[in-house]
Specification:
The complex is a heterodimer of chains A (105) and B (220). With 105 residues, chain A is of the alpha/beta class. Chain A contains five helices and four strands. Helices cover 43% and strands 21% of the residues of chain A. Chain A has a four-stranded parallel sheet with strand order 2-1-3-4. Chain A is globular. Chain B is mainly alpha-helical and 220 residues long. Chain B has a domain of 151 residues: Helix Hairpins (Orthogonal Bundle). Classes of the chains: A alpha/beta (105), B mainly alpha (220). Chains A and B meet through strand 3, strand 4 and helix 5 of A and helix 1, strand 1, strand 2 and helix 3 of B.
Chain lengths: 105, 220
Amino acid sequence: MYKIAIMGESDSIYGFATLGLDTFPVDNAESAQKTLRNLAESDYAVVYVTENTASGIQNEIVRYSEQKLPAIILVPGVSGNTGDGVRNVSKSVEQAVGSDIIFGS
Amino acid sequence: MASKTVTATRMELTRLKRKLVTTRRGHKLLKDKRDELMRQFLSMVRENMELRKKVEAGLAAANKNFVLAKSTMSEEAVNVAFMTPKQEVSLEVSEKNIMSVDIPVFEYKTRTSDPNDIYSYGFAFTSSDLDDAVKSLSDLLPDMLKLAEIEKACQLMAAEIEKTRRRVNALEHVIIPETEAGIKMITMKLDENERSTQIRLMKVKDMLLEDAHHYSEREA
């Protein structure tokens, strides 16, 4: 039985607690990295990370992208959409095809 | 191209020929795998992008609702309202195999059966904006989970495609030409050996005949 976590600035994530997701407020890259590692090792299958938090721990997130679990998914936070999530999708196209032929501008 | 030194023997030739057949078959199979993976990946990644845009728009709206709700309530009241969540979600993870890539499939279960049973607070001390915000978020949850599933699948498939593509290219541009060059070299060497043996035999025969019949003396 797996659980779902959401990690990011507390303002962006507190609402998810009502849905039954486990919220993990973090306020700097260092604690974000530590939290993410802990989450990946315990039984969380999906970890949503706000884009702002994710931008500080890119390397850590890439590490999990080729593992089956957990799925680390970027979501926009309360401060607005930075476009990182969309960029990540384009990046996987680039990885597979060699260049972004679908969403490239 | 043939940078490797091959020993020019018949045994080596048979070995190389056999290797070439296997390599060709492997190359064809891998190429088919790559093409099929790519086809599935492209349709999946399109879906991924659409879903992501939908989720991001939904989240932006939900966040707006939360900001509105917070503006009419005190920080403490909001914190108290969310202190003890009523609902709990758990995930069942199963696996699906697409072209030898294991991708996770999520199925979620909520603790209470009523999907509207999400408000973890009494309605007396909270604003109605908060209800809207929570509702909008809860409507978004199925899509968010679907997004997680698809995005993970895309990441895994992209990695697999990259690997397969490298293998195909290595076979096509390195292993196969190298083997072919090796085979060519050995055949030429063996042919050359055969010719020189032939010439040597002819020469020896000439010498033997010369010894027996003394042609050159008779001509003189």
